Amino acid sequence: MATILTLTANPMIDYLTTGRIVADSVNRLGHFTPLAGGKGLNMGRVLARHGHRVIATGFAGGTEGDLLADLTAADGMEPAFITTAARTRMGFITIDPERGGCTSVLEHGSPVTTAELGTMMQQMRAMVSEADLVLIGGSVPHDTCNGLYRQVLDICALEKVTCWVDAYGAVMDEALIGANPPAFAKPNKEEYGKGRRWLPCRELHLSDGGNELKIRHPEGRFRVKPPKIKTINPVGSGDCYVAALAHARLSGMTLIDQLRYAAAAGAANAARVDIARISPADIRAIIDQVDVTPVKE
Ligand SMILES: Nc1ncnc2c1ncn2[C@@H]1O[C@H](COP(=O)(O)OP(=O)(O)OP(=O)(O)O)[C@@H](O)[C@H]1O
Ligand SMILES: [Mg+2]
């Protein structure tokens, strides 16, 4: 069992339901299930389900922030959020299991204060050395936080703790040009954009939903074909991929088996309504369908 510290700077309470939404009309749907939402929390949920100790930090405030901490704990993680004056944002997502479509409506994050950012850095300096791996996931609540991931990467480098970042936009660009770029990133096709800016990453996994992944690793390049499944809700599949890869690596699997485990985890998530609630058994059930091919350089 390893200790993993996750950072979700812009978490939310994700209200999940099923049913089809029709615009410009009243939509009556089933119960809304609140979920601790955000990439770091999705990754943490999967890792906790693999028996790891997960410490979950981020910014959280208001009654929604209290609920976020409760949901995080109920998912088997240790909540360690920095309290903000601004309340935690909310999101709404409905899945149409018949058509496999998914509609979501999300609030923007609210700015955090300079003092709150300072408390986050203090906490990171105190906690990073406890972790075997730091996982940063998702957006930041406001442009004033665009240096946050770069600063956390610097702390991780100082403490010699590996840090993976699954993010995009300005906060990721800053992280990539910093003195200590992320050891690993997993952009999807859209986030990858023009490509060159990802070069500082030691290891890059470029994903594209159900299509082939392209992997650049110090041991070589690989193409990975995920299992064929009926897609229900792909939200969080990237997070499941990263969490499963982390588990596979921390448990000493070979690189090829790590890639197979990760791709199967993403697919297992996409085949379900809920988000990042997959178990090791769900992954094992389809792992044989993953194809990994080394690519000649
Ligand atoms: N429809 C699908 N069929 C099979 N596998 C899938 C499907 N969607 C996702 N996966 C698996 O999950 C991995 C990550 O998916 P994807 O490229 O959608 O990530 P993402 O866009 O980063 O997702 P998110 O950011 O919502 O977590 C894929 O590489 C694949 O292994
Ligand atoms: Mg992603």
Description:
The chain is built from 9 helices and 15 strands. Helix 4 packs parallel to helix 5 (169-177) and helix 8 crosses helix 9 (280-286). Strands 1, 4, 5, 6, 9 and 10 form a 6-stranded parallel beta sheet that branches. The chain has helices at 39-48, 62-74, 114-127, 148-159, 169-177, 189-192, 237-250, 255-270, 280-286, and strands at residues 3-8, 12-18, 33-37, 53-60, 78-79, 82-83, 89-96, 101-106, 133-137, 162-166, 184-185, 203-208, 211-217, 220-225, 291-295. It has one domain (3-21, 31-295): 3-Layer(aba) Sandwich (UDP-N-acetylmuramoyl-L-alanine:D-glutamate ligase). It has 297 residues and is of the alpha/beta class. The mean pLDDT is 96. The structure holds adenosine-5'-triphosphate and magnesium ion.
List bound small molecules. Answer: adenosine-5'-triphosphate, magnesium ion
What is the straight-line distance between the termini? 36 Å
Instruction: Using the alpha-carbon principal axes, give the shape.
Output: globular
Could you tell me the strand content as a percent range? 25-35%
Write out the CATH superfamily name.
Ribokinase
Helix content: 25-40%
In this structure, how is the largest beta sheet organized?
6 strands, parallel
SS elements, strand count: 15
Low-pLDDT runs of 5+ residues are none
The helix/strand order is EEEHEHEEEEHEHEHEHEEEHHHE
Q: Which topology does CATH recognise?
A: UDP-N-acetylmuramoyl-L-alanine:D-glutamate ligase
Rg, Å, rounded: 18 Å
The CATH class is identified as Alpha Beta
Number of separate structural domains: 1
Number of helices: 9
Q: Assign the CATH architecture.
A: 3-Layer(aba) Sandwich
